[in-house]
């Protein structure tokens, strides 16, 4: 087995270490006109290849990743698995306004045409029942609840796990169950990319607990900032924030800090200095289900 990774990203190397197999950076050159040239820098004939590429910034990354998948097959790879710790476009899972593309489904059709299998972490499955609803290749969605619960137990005393919106209830409840902690979810209303309102639904949270806000994606940080403000206004202590995917824009960390977040940590699905919770071991176990030794 060989892991071919998006150049410079830590996840591919961590994955190959967990799979105890060879690693090669994908060679991606960007031409002045914006086109990409990709090159596979190792012999893949007869090998099972795991393409490790987070699909954050998908409009830049997806085409080179697809070109690489095609090249891997032409160069003789036996199985080409995509290990995308962050799977893009999953939030566009409905036609929210007339004429809109349902991009999660379109993206799934494209990736399914190029790869033999897919492993990802906590894809944003809110309206689709599972990856199988849109991906026609075998797929695994690795859960982050276990590693997050472990981190919370080791780092936060007397936690209460808080979800920023009703949709987060199932997996916030799972983190809480594994951490043996209580949980609550808040009510969120989004009016635009930057207009987010979050309110406490439980007005009487048990006193003396340390809130830990857990969300799958943190992008602008507005959801977390609004949740943090609501908790503080409700008399709670400054929360710790745990995000799975650190999809931060330039101001996200500042927004959360200004709102009163005590600490922000994330999983290692997108390289960021806040990464504190490794998921490469769990992704490696899922890859092994498709490519046994
Ligand atoms: C939404 O359903 C997601 O779970 C996140 O809450 C959302 O994507 C966070 O976005 P932002 O950080 O831009 O508020």
Over the alpha carbons, how many angstroms does the gyration radius reach? 20 Å
Proportion of residues in extended strands = 25-35%
So what's the overall shape?
A: globular
Bound molecules: ribose-5-phosphate
Count the E strands: 16
Question: Which series of helices and strands comes N to C?
Answer: EHEEEEHEHEEHEHEEEEHEHEEH
Question: Roughly how much helix do the residues carry, as a percent range?
Answer: 25-40%
- Low-pLDDT runs of 5+ residues are none
Instruction: Tell me about the largest β-sheet.
Output: 6 strands, parallel
Class derived from helix and strand content: alpha/beta
Give the termini separation: 8 Å
Separate helix tally: 8
The order of strands across the largest sheet is 2-1-5-6-7-8
Instruction: Please state the average pLDDT score.
Output: 96
Brief summary of the model shown:
With 293 residues, this protein is α/β, with parallel strands linked by helices.
Give short descriptive properties of this protein:
single chain, 293 residues, alpha/beta, 6-stranded parallel β-sheet, 8 helices, 26% strand, binds ribose-5-phosphate
How would you summarize the topology of this molecule?
Layout: E1 2-5, H1 10-19, E2 22-25, E3 27-30, E4 36-39, E5 48-52, H2 58-74, E6 79-84, H3 103-114, E7 117-121, E8 139-142, H4 145-155, E9 159-163, H5 169-179, E10 183-185, E11 187-190, E12 196-199, E13 210-218, H6 222-233, E14 240-246, H7 252-259, E15 263-267, E16 275-277, H8 280-290
Parallel strand pairs: 1-2, 1-5, 5-6, 6-7, 7-8, 9-10, 9-13, 13-14, 14-15, 15-16
Antiparallel strand pairs: 3-4, 11-12
The site of ribose-5-phosphate (R5P) has 12 residues, from β13 and α6.
